[in-house]
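<discrete_fold_record>
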Amino acid sequence: REVNKKKQITIYDISEEAGVSIATVSRVLNDSPKVSRKTKERVLDIIQASGYEPNAFARGLGTGSMKTIGILCADVADIYLANAVSYLERELRKEGFQTVLNCTGYSYEAKKDGVKRMENQRVDAIILVGSQYIEATERRNQYILDAAKQVPVMLVNGYLKGNNIYCILSEDKEMFFEVTGQLLDRGRKNIVFLMREESYSGRKKKEGYQAAYAERGLVYDPEMIIQFNEKIDKVKDLLIEFYQEHPQIDAVVATDDELAVGALKFALQSGIEIPEKMEVVGCNNSVLSISCYPELSSVDNMCEALCVTVVASLMRVLEGSEVPVRTMIASEFVARGTTNN
């Protein structure tokens, strides 16, 4: 026997049909005087015709009555993610918002469950910190698209195209293209690219590394791209073993400072002079970059600026204003003692 499953109508469906923001729909539900009579009548007609039943999210969105934002990150022990959470909470406090934090870990099911749990709490919006939440296929990203039908979703340095999703990103690909290109132009031809998981940001950084070789008519060795999600000492040990088979290494570009410091320890133990024989570049311009010797050259992906922009954009979304769905923040290269700049 065939069962007729009626599609659940969401606040997003109403806003799309009416041609207004979801915040405007919420104001209509709360009989706000800020909405014109003509718009209010159009939205109410659509609500009545659809049989839409508003929930707490929908009623609270335009009024600011909940004043709570959900923040998810994979691991607050990660320096970059910890800094981002701190900046976000600081900026949200300035706006009078509380936060609920959920550290989900890196597994797909845990991330999906974390977002679902946050949906079920009384939050005005969800902020996903880090590109680890963006999967390679649309099907695996559906959990984020579904969440955005209920509340605005802000992505910190991740990109996903979808309604009610707003992305603020660093120029990762461009910066790693520039940094790798500078190394190649100084004669470094055997550059190790050291990365962690295949996140959106990690893929963009790798694309920049690859593009720098292609731009110069050079071919990189695929074996020089190493994916290794471990701590400093294990990175050191990995590179010591790798160096036995690849003694031609003359530079390391890493997707975060922790990986780069592991490369520095490898060079020190192996008697390789930095930066004369090998140059090393990290990313995030974290406290680690000035806690080692030589001090580490690093890409500053402007974590604080990203988070300030995320909160400013979110406030405009909650006010019902038009907000760009994709905002790029320029990164900077900070040269220190591990490169010959």
